[in-house]
Amino acid sequence: MKAFLMTVRLFLLIFVSVSLSALAQLALKVGTTAAASARSSGVGGEMGGLLHSPMVFVGLGLYGIGAILWLFVLGRAPLSLAYPFVGIGFILTMLAGAFFLNENLTFARVAGTLLIAVGCVLVARSA
Q1: With the CA atoms of 19, 22, 28 and 29 taken in that order, what torsion angle do they form, in degrees rounded to the nearest 10?
Q2: How far apart are alpha carbons 119 and 127 in whole angstroms?
Q3: How many domains does the chain fold into?
Q4: Transmembrane stretches, by residue range (predicted)?
């Protein structure tokens, strides 16, 4: 029973880490879009906008937390087991873009994202 709980905890840790990375992408997209529209006076103005965008810092913070959780995953699981779950991040990021940013989910985009995710699993399993 203890081994099963450890496995469930590990998979939850993997899922949270991957989900935080997807949320980080969403926050960074929102932050950079706002910065680009607020200051369109060249690269210097846009950089200033990025430094003043709270969502950019939220995104970077989420990436940091996700990376720390990923370090815990790597310390407890074989890389060949953990890494295929990164493919879930592609799917979550695509869905976040569609639901929160009204990005189009075309057949090609969905099929391509699923192929990337499946490719991550195949590469990891081939090791």
Answers
A1: -140
A2: 13
A3: 1
A4: 54-74, 81-101, 107-124
